[in-house]
Amino acid sequence: MTQLFLEQALNGLQFGLMLFLLAAGLTLVFGIMDMINLAHGSLYMVGAYLAATVAAVSGSFIVGVLAAVIGTAIIGALLEVTVLRRLYVRDHLSQVLATFALIMIANESVRLIWGDQAVMLNPPDALSGPLEIAGFSYPAFRLLIIGVGVAVALLLYLVVTRTKVGMWVRAGASNREMAEAMGINVKQLFTLVFAAGAGLCALAGAMLGPLLAVQVGMGESILILAFVVIVIGGIGSIRGALVGSLLVGIVDTMGRALLPWVLREFLPGPVAANLGPALAAISIYLLMAAILFWRPAGLFPARG
Amino acid sequence: MRLTALAASLLLASSVHAADTVKVGFLSTLSGPGAGLGVDIRDGFQLAMKQLNGKLGNLPAEVLIADDQQKPDVAKQEAEKFLKKDKVDFMTGIVFSNIMLAVGPQAFDAKTYYISANAGPSQYAGEQCNPFFFNVAWQNDNLHEAMGKYVQDKGFNNVVVVTPNYPGGKDAVSGFKRYYKGKSEEIYTKLGQLDYAAELAQIRAIKPDALFFFLPGGMGINFVKQFVAAGLSRDIQLFAPGFSADEDVIKAVGAPMLGMFNSSHWAHDFNNPENKRFVADFEKEYGRLPSLYASQGYDAAMLINAAVRDVKGNLSDKAALQKALEAKKFKSVRGDFKFNSNHYPVQNYVLRVIGNDAQGRVTNKTMGTIFTNHADAYVSQCKMK
Amino acid sequence: MALPESARPPQQSGALYRQTAMRRYLALAVLSALAALPLVLEALDQSFYISFVARVLIFALAATSLNFIVGFGGMVAFGHAAFFGAGAYTVAILMEAGVVSAFISWPLAVGVAALLSLGIGLASLRTRGVYFIMITLAFAQMIFYLFVSLKHWGGDDGLSLLSRSAFGGLDLKDDAVFYWLVLACLAAALFLLDRLAHARFGRVLQAIRENESRMEGLGYPVMRYKLLCFVIGAALAGLAGALLANHSQLASPNLLHWTQSGTLLVMVIVGGVGSLYGGVVGAVVLLLLEELLSGFTNHWHLVLGLILLVVVFRAPKGIAAYTHALFRRGQERE
Questions:
Q1: Where are the domains of chain C?
Q2: What is the pLDDT of residue B106?
Q3: Does residue B9 fall inside a structural domain?
Q4: pLDDT single digits (tens) C230-248
């Protein structure tokens, strides 16, 4: 029983870090440019498709991931320069409409290029099975996701707090005019940040592709979860995104794993059998509603 | 407003007189994430139209195509257009049961024959059965029943069943358990769930000898990938209904699916002349192996063709048309089948296993028959008028 | 970070609720044309389109109700599907229980939606901006998952209505009669919202949207005003849901899905946030485009996406405001 509990905790951690890969880019763009980018999920989808295609052609998963990150970052930069840049000064609703239009365009373009059916993206053979440590077995690829998630979190922390670019980002975010007056090219900086966000999306898409279906529409189902995460954490806060991801991952996993068992102890059979899965399905929404009820600006409000 | 959605226009280049043409309203999910299945049914149907030189029962045919966007209210709107404006003679194409149940009453009220190429809801097999509804595929429970029978016969006695928490999932469980009588534990997941780590850990703790899952669409792909990555495929035999293990899923998962058992009424390696021609022509036309959905779309067209031919194009005699449809004078790619009194098929169900074919492709191989002349469980509740 | 809300160009949306005599005549002319439409269509033997236009008008009502919350109340809600669906399910569930009369089930549909929105509003209005967007989404998602899993009410299959509601002497089975009733509901809702906007309630609400803390300082019960606005919008969505359930004779979880909330929001933005007719214009444009484009190609999403992008950049305040501005420019030139 303790081993099962431990494994579920690890699952929660892994699911959380998986969401963090996506939420990090979203909260960065949101926090710094004050831009609601619904097309974030589309970049994630494009990243996964690129990774699948390049991995299939080159025969190497790593090459696929690298190509996806670079390719999607370029696409993101192009998107920023041509379309999104003009949206920063607009209100949130215009951003919602424009990026919603981008979702439709991206989904149909992917359908035109890759067809209607899901495409294949499998982990490298060495990581395709479970890893066994002292009788405890865990999928190797999920361990890799944990590793990548932790590395990205550390890297982001270091970049934002310790480097010149990070300083610019913080300056540009907190006071745009002042930063410009001090000689920072905010325009270029934003393009750079957006490209980096897109690259993170692609990394998420390529890393999750071997676990999830690479198909049209994959971006939207996970986008909602990513929004839940950054709202719980507080928009614009990388730390918030990390904490939010882990909370969502653990609550969702534990809800699914434990709720049906717990309810079975206390309630008559049929009631528990119906209530358990229903409650587990909405556990993260309950979590978000509760957190926002008591902390209306999330756990780590970045502004004000 | 539908500016001539003439998908079949290429095929019927000759002049069209309203009086002596057959109009088919093909309504299916053709956009959005669920489009893959609808596109396969459409391609199967269009292939048949091509082989028939654009004619159904020797009459020039017009196939009007509409997209239901997987939304019941949109589907009803499009169906109404087919029935009231275009005055189609037949309707077909719907993938999902909830859409079928929304559209069905409209078609029945308009006395238009609906030939289902996929959706087989229990309602229309039982109490709500209708003379204007024919299903050329299966009743939704059939493939689950076949899997349950096989798992039972093979002596498995500790089975976990995984399915989403919605009525379709619960129907799958009851279909499976209609023939599987051993010990079983059900795990219900969220509809549209992405990550299955928690469920897989529970499964590992239960230590079943077999696992049956019904997870439509992308959920099934996610589950199989994660099941294999967790190493569970070494100790637990995986079973699924054919629609969770057909070409669309194989294309997305590939080699990890090797060795998975599934049930179907059709497979592309069926050794009959009709099927050989269908599979060869489909591959030539579309560059991929047909799925069971494509075979169903193809059979729907062939059934309409045979019925129109047998009534000699007289589509206004509804009773004669119904007799002709019931008589089903065509050779299906699945081999022989006949319609039950509720207009659902009585047919064989086979066991398939995913393996490598002669060209090294990962695909389904037929292993043997599970059910012969199998009907559905609801036919006794049907009082066909 | 970045631009604070106050640094944004001020939204003049409320101004568009102001009616000039010209616009009123225009509205009356459009209304009469719409009222005559079934007769014209029947004369042309195109009666199918009566039902199509009725559906468009129902969505116009739903979008209008959302626009009242988003545009006039300044609360961007992303869970409107919950109220839309609640109205539809109320009618369907009552019908299954044998309550056929519209005089019972429709007011109840409005009431259920209003009650639901009262609860959700109370819990959500502490938050604002994106947090409000997400918390309203959360509640709508909970309701969606609840209805999908309830086998008793059809689950994923939804709940069919055996017939349309009984409405006194009117035969709603007749598509033209049903159409006129829908049109009357939409016209009444627009009239009501127009009056509300010009009453004290509307002026206070507008002032709250412009500067909430000032109004709070002046002693106005800001929360209560916002909550009332939210409930009125939701109640009208409940009516739209009741109409849609009657139109398609079906209540399905699809109506509760978050993409439905998204579609309604897109209609509002396309039409014009905060303009009285914004919801109507958006619903008409979006559904007509959908109908037209899907006839040409299966890849119509691509075309629709491009058109929406053009709308964002060419008509920043929505099509209703855009035509309004064009109209004014034309007048100035004269």
A1: 13-41+48-257
A2: 92
A3: no
A4: 999 999 999 999 999 999 9
| Biggest CA pair distance of chain A | 68
Neighbouring chains to B with at least 3 Cβ pairs closer than 8 Å: A, C
* 8 Å CB contact of A8 and B253: no
Smallest Cβ–Cβ distance between A253 and the set B189, B198, B230 belongs to B198
- Only one residue has tokens 């019908």, namely C95
* Chain A CB within 8 Å of residue C138 CB: yes
Task: Give how far B329 is from chain C: nearest CA, Å.
Answer: 33
Q: With respect to residue B168, please indicate whether it lies within any of the assigned structural domains.
A: yes
Q: Which helix (H) or strand (E) holds B62?
A: strand B59-67
C127 interfaces chain B, CB cutoff of 8 Å:
no
The alpha carbon of residue A22 is apart from the nearest alpha carbon of chain B, in Å, by 14
Q: Are residues B244 and B371 in the same domain?
A: yes
Question: Is B237 contained in some domain?
Answer: yes
Strand partners, B339: B345
Nearest to B198 among A111, A141, A257 (CB): A257
Per-residue model confidence as pLDDT tens digits over C278-303: 999 999 999 999 988 987 887 889 99
Residue B34 lies in a domain: yes
Q: How many CB atoms are closer than 10 A to CB B14? A: 9
Specify the pLDDT at position C327.
61
- The CATH number of the domain where B366 resides is what? 3.40.50.2300
Distance from CA of B93 to the nearest CA of C (A): 15
Going by pLDDT thresholds of 50, 70 and 90, the confidence category of residue A5 is: confident
Helix H or strand E encompassing A303: none
Give backbone dihedrals phi and psi of C280, rounded to 5 degrees, phi first: -65, -50
Looking at the structure of chain B, the number of domains it has is 2
Domain ranges in chain A are: 2-294
C268, C246, C276, C237: which is closest to C15 by C-alpha? C276
* Assigned fold of A2-294: ABC transporter involved in vitamin B12 uptake, BtuC (1.10.3470)
Interface check for A139 against chain B (CB to CB < 8 A): the answer is yes
What residue numbers bound the domain in which B34 lies? 18-138+271-335
Shared domain for B62 and B128, answered yes or no, is yes
Query: Cβ of B2 under 8 Å from any chain A Cβ?
Result: no
Q: Of B28-32, B313-317, C67-71, C154-158, which one has max mean pLDDT? A: C67-71
- pLDDT per residue over B91-129, tens digit each? 999 999 889 999 999 999 999 999 999 999 999 999 999
Same domain for B134 and B155: no
Query: Is B228 close to A128, i.e. CB distance below 8 A?
Result: yes
Are A282 and C145 an interchain contact pair (Cβ–Cβ within 8 Å)?
Answer: yes
Q: Half-sphere exposure of A108 toward its Cβ, with a 13 Å CA cutoff?
A: 17
**Chain C residues within an 8 Å CB radius of B99:** none
For residues B29 and B102, membership in a common domain is answered with yes
**Mean pLDDT estimate for chain A:** 88
Give the ranges where chain B is alpha helix by DSSP (H).
Answer: 35-51, 72-80, 97-109, 122-125, 142-153, 167-177, 197-206, 218-229, 247-253, 273-286, 292-310, 318-327
Binary contact (B194, A222; C-beta < 8 A): yes
